[in-house]
Structure formats: structure tokens, C-alpha cells
Here is the input.
Amino acid sequence: MTMQADPDAILSNLLELLEAEHEALKAGQAGKAGGLLQPKMEAMQAFDALVEDPARLRGVADVKVRMERIVRLATENANLFSAVRNGVGQAVTRVSNSTAQSYVGAYTAAGEKTAFSKATGGYAKKA
Here is the structure.
């Protein structure tokens, strides 16, 4: 959108994108939310240009309510993205810790760990 785009359309477009991003994040679809990044950034640039000239907002229906909703959604979405980032980081840490601590091999008759390549003897079959 250009700087001369309809103020109502700028606000509506940004609200739609933020709401779609919010729903995707709440549903755990971070990839879908990430796919909205480029159009959201373009909508934010148009919004910034609109806010630089407050006279363009005169006469726009429900402008105060819509601006408050934009701010609220942007804040909530930032918090949700932060939660996703923290969750992914914790999952990566847990997986890397579990693989470092896990053991794949066999045990001797005395109960000591031994690699499969050094395992000897028979394996009992369970009925």
C-alpha cells in the first residue's frame, strides 16, 4: 500500500493480518504466523505513514477502537512469539540433553554397560 492509500483500508488490512497472526499463534501454528511476516511488515509501514499524518484519520469510523485493538494485538502477538521462541529453545535443549545422556548398547552378565559390538552371549526371548 502506498502512503495515499485509503486510511480505512490500511487499518482494516493491518487488523486482519494481526488477527490472523494471533489465531495462528494461539493454535500453535508458528509457521503459518511466520508466513504473515512480510505482508504484516508492509501493512505496518503503511500504518506508520498514516500515523505520521493524523489529519488523514479524521472521519475514519471507529478509529480509536481500531487503533487500540491494533496496539493490543501487536503486544499480545509479540508475547506469543516470545513464548514460542522460549518453548522451541527449551525443546531443543531437552532433546540435546537427552541424546547426550542416553545410552544405546548392551549389558554384561554383571550389569555393566557394553557396546553392541562387544556383546556376547545369547539373548533370551520372551514368550
Notes: The longest strand covers residues 106-107. The radius of gyration is 27 Å. The chain has four helices and two strands. The CA atoms of residues 45 and 110 lie 69 Å apart.
